[in-house]
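Supplementary Text 2. Reproducibility record for the structural model of the 718-residue chain.

All settings were left at their defaults, and a single model was retained for analysis rather than an ensemble. We include the record here because the model underlies the residue-level annotations in Supplementary Table 4.
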Amino acid sequence: MSENLDQNADIDTLTLEQARGELERLASEIAEHDRRYHQEDAPTISDADYDALRLRNAALEARFPELVREDSPSARVGAAPSEAFSKITHKVAMLSLDNAFKDDDVRDFVGRVRRFLKYDPLMGALAVTAEPKIDGLSLSLRYERGKLIYAATRGDGTTGENVTANARTISDIPQVLTGAVPEVVEVRGEVYMAHADFQALNTRMAANGGKVFANPRNAAAGSLRQLNSDITASRPLKFFAYAWGDMSEIPAKTQLDMVRIFESWGFVINPLMKRCESVEELLEVYHRIEEERATLGYDIDGVVYKVDRLDLQQRLGFVSRSPRWAIAHKFPAEKAFTILNDIEIQVGRTGALTPVAKLEPVTVGGVVVSNATLHNEDYIKGIGQDGEPIRGGKDLRVGDTVQIQRAGDVIPQIVDVDLAKRSEGAEAFVFPTLCPACGSHAVREENAKSGRMDAIRRCTGGLICPAQATEKLKHFVSRNAFDIEGLGDKQVDAFYQDGLVMAPADIFTLEDRDKQALTKLRNREGWGAVSARNLFEAINARRNIDLNRFIFALGIRHVGEGNAKLLARAYGSWGVFSDAMIAAHDKGGDAWTDLNNIDGIGTIVADALTEFFAEEHNRAQLDALVKEVSPRDVEKIDASGSPVAGKTVVFTGSLERMTRDEAKAMAERYGAKVSGSVSKKTDLVVAGPKAGSKLKKAEELGIEVISEDAWFERVEGS
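Retained model, structure tokens:
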């Protein structure tokens, strides 16, 4: 499990430092859940819990916009593609959708669209399409001159897996398009499995002693991602087309008309898709589809709304991981009762003790669930945000009959306890004050500024705690860090226990030590000559790694993927970065000031970095590591062709020709970096009416200041 900050704390009470740490935790935890869902087809958290994490992240970003991270879940799609398939880079990114959960969220969505477009009601109805949200696996199909060229999964949104051979076996996917077709066509949609086909497949698999799938989505994803296309061909997969990517020509002016054209080309489209002209009509479609959900014959988990006019979609653009012109209205979660058999404590890489509920397996909506995250000890006691009661203040005890809630995946959340069924001898759960891994004291720290206790209890064992040491090593080799194939959790645990890998550098000396040792890796249980050779090759393939991934892999607290990218971009090379971090420990010097002036890096992150590099043991490990690996320098921005490429730009005041989001997107298209504050490293300030302190500071520093009109002249005249 991932370690948490106080995930139940009221956002309105958080300090800037607490919010920064909470955003770092959420980014890391959501990324792991994305990996398990998109790569492994094996989610370990319910849709409801996952959505709650994203909602909390969005609420934090709304209150603290200056803390939005580059690796924010709001800026990330899916997970990195599997190494088992060759990769395909999407010419147009495959993005995810923001979620709505209540009718009022839909009203807010339409209101935001109107405000962004300055779409006055007097201009007439704002048409929006509504269609079922299929619970399957996203797929992009590229056709050239009407013939299928390749098929790719979503992957991380930028790069997907090449599953062309498998996609060709799906009867709903035409090999050749019919009718008048543009030169290049990229049709996107969802691969899924019908309920009846799913049940028949599981019956057949069980009879043959094979794997039984948890739900139709996992079955569809697992079938499409088979290395043997003959297996895929034997699976009853279907495909709905509903979107597009790279197109040499757009043959329609609206979303609905585009999808209808797909049908004329030979694709299957969803018959329930409808164009609506009011919020009330959208909600009517939503509730009708919700009522019909059980009779559709395939899984859906909501309804998707999209602004119909394509020219308005283009104006609306995107916000990080999702389009402004679309949203997914999710269905409520499903519930069931079961028994809480045990509460286990897991220790994370920063020493966080995380409780996990072990449940009597129960089927909810066709999925067997047996675990639930319990967050922290207050959650077990029935205490929520700011000491407010949750579950009516009922605590959780081993043996309790509990109500669980899920919305399509595996692990649910516990929403209630049936006290009438609690046994008389049931004892309140006592959260450990000693680390179960090393026996060190586990404490809840008090925030000096707020006076509140951290919701998370942490082991104080540090380097002597084997759980923390192994979790740090697992983080180091994880997919978004060094991504060493064949060195998974079980291998890390075994190598650490046997003294083979105690620190990151040991991974890269493993082969040399194996050659010299009498006991060879290939002779260990579960290993052979081929698997040992494959591991050594995978390790050697990672001796050169991007600087941002190297920094992230170090597991420095508060330094997630986003901050690692910010730091890599700011310093450019490992030598410059490491020297600067050592120098920044003197908080009165220029190095400390430069570090804090990086947009997105605050004092909490800066403190964590400098303290990490000040620790002699850490520096010794880093010295040993960089003897084995070479972090790649960051490529410098090509400043040719754009007058603002590589420059740091600040927008301030009221912008009249574009919204602030449009301004940021425009600047980034021209290669500029947008900052939220003015410093001596700012190159240009674009000031609109009512510009205040930022304008004043720019004038004091002698930074060039131009108007919004001058900005357009500068970039569009380039």
